[in-house]
């Protein structure tokens, strides 16, 4: 099993447990777990509505690709430990990680 923690916008932390080999993105897990994220573009790194801050485990994640970095550059609240949940595959590298949801709840 893969264990990581999600911190919602209100500071509430919830442990998540996912079977290994499930082949989902963190965004898909968040949506299936009924977290309030839009994920408008469906995982194409085009909208940044699944923006998360990596509180623990950032160095264990694979590096962000250019499309993700370009999208993060458009966000005023993104910093060096920001990622798009749609670009993070759930695998053993997420064990022990903690993510804070930052993405917008609704488009204006």
From TrEMBL:
All copies of domain 2Fe-2S ferredoxin-type, residue ranges: 1-105
Any GO BP annotation: P450-containing electron transport chain
GO MF: 2 iron, 2 sulfur cluster binding; electron transfer activity; metal ion binding
Record keywords, A-Z: 2Fe-2S, Iron, Iron-sulfur, Metal-binding
Lineage: superkingdom: Bacteria
PROSITE patterns reported in the protein's UniProt record: 2FE2S_FER_2 (PS51085)
One Pfam family this sequence matches: Fer2
Keyword Thylakoid: no
Cofactor requirements of the protein: [2Fe-2S] cluster
Coiled coil: none
Family, per entry: Belongs to the adrenodoxin/putidaredoxin family.
Protein name from the UniProt record: 2Fe-2S iron-sulfur cluster binding domain-containing protein
Organism of this sequence: Spirosoma profusum
